[in-house]
Amino acid sequence: MNKVVLVTGANSGIGLALCERLLSQDTEGLQLCLACRNMGRAQAARSALLTSHPTAQVALLQMDTSSISSVISAAQEIKLRYNRLDYLYLNAGIMPNPQFDLKGFFKGLFSSKIITMFATGEGILTQKDGVTSDGLREIFATNLFGHFLLIRELEPVLCHEGRPSQLIWTSSSNAHRSAFNLEDIQHQRGTQPYSSSKYASDLLSLALNTHYNKQGLYSSVICPGFVMTSLTYGILPSFPAFLWTLLIPLFWLIRIFTNTFTLTPYNGAEALVWLFKQKPESLDPTVKYQSLTSGLGNNYTQARKMDIDLETSKALYEKLLQLESEVRKKLKRKVK
Ligand SMILES: NC(=O)C1=CN([C@@H]2O[C@H](COP(=O)(O)OP(=O)(O)OC[C@H]3O[C@@H](n4cnc5c(N)ncnc54)[C@H](OP(=O)(O)O)[C@@H]3O)[C@@H](O)[C@H]2O)C=CC1
Ligand SMILES: CC(C)=CCC[C@@H](C)[C@H]1CC[C@H]2C3=C(CC[C@]12C)[C@@]1(C)CCC(=O)C[C@@H]1CC3
What we know:
Blueprint: E1 3-8, H1 13-25, E2 30-36, H2 39-52, E3 57-62, H3 68-81, E4 87-90, E5 99-100, H4 102-109, H5 114-120, E6 125-126, H6 138-153, H7 155-158, E7 165-170, H8 193-212, E8 217-223, H9 230-233, H10 241-246, H11 248-255, H12 265-268, H13 270-276, E9 287-293, E10 299-305, H14 310-335
Parallel strand pairs: 1-2, 1-4, 2-3, 4-7, 7-8, 8-9
Antiparallel strand pairs: 5-6, 9-10
Helix pairs in contact: 3-6, 6-8, 8-14
Bound molecules: NADPH dihydro-nicotinamide-adenine-dinucleotide phosphate (NDP) and ligand LLCNDLXC.
């Protein structure tokens, strides 16, 4: 039976590289669905995939993870098209208006935290957030809540005893506990909404395992490392993309000291591809699977314990359920 794989944010970067790598492994046995916000870029991605894999089954679906109504109608469409989903890659993400703290960068360069700084970007980045038309914080809605709602909507095609399905989150090394506050899950107060949303996805993944494992649904998180994509090009906005390329030799050098500099979307997708081949029952819900690239350019996946606890994950889950019920009520009122 063909495996059905849905990838959010599949039209560029790590999501697109994942699709390419999955098709290279098994062109005939997959039904790929690219769930994208921008359909122009989605068409281009589909054409590129079909050029290298002409017999592949690649479908497109319009979905904006930051919009409640878009997620709900996309989920309806998925349920019409497929009886079941084997893999749901929750990959779409944004880090808008990142501010690079040059002072923090130089301070970090000459401190014992230099390796951590290059591995996580901690201490040198802050982000500016916006508000969606549903009244939610944009980064929270795009990276976390839209995906949460999608999972909830897709329960009937994801939960099948006997044949497990997998949820796979693209998290980040930039996810850290200090950026997250249970009393402010959308990160309305603070300067690290991206880090908060990624830490929340780590917590949520644990909670999803607690809730759904009995129903044959498993959740894991990965970190792709530092990858040069449109998301990271925004960090030095006055820097055109081609100038970033000039930094590549320097980045290769840094990679000798920190194998988290995966740099290309192909390398960054390593852990996503690795998880595709694992039995979900054998995975550890408390670790993050990291894509790593050695100084010699070899890719591998390593599990690292996450700084999360069950109690906080359950509390976040309850808060998300509560928010879900609020936004559904609001949506009903709007429709009336
Ligand atoms: N690059 C890096 O170093 C790292 C990236 N990550 C994570 O990897 C994931 C992929 O990012 P990356 O490939 O780097 O960056 P890209 O910007 O190349 O990819 C992001 C993807 O998400 C999509 N997307 C953004 N907003 C929405 C939305 N509201 N609804 C639907 N799709 C949306 C984009 O689509 P569109 O064309 O419509 O904008 C795009 O396809 C993200 O979750 C990111 O946080 C994690 C750690 C490091
Ligand atoms: C020589 C020079 C100009 C170095 C600057 C490098 C930084 C721009 C990168 C070092 C670590 C990177 C990093 C990210 C962005 C770019 C860096 C700060 C992320 C925060 C991008 C988004 C993530 O999810 C995690 C990444 C961690 C590492």
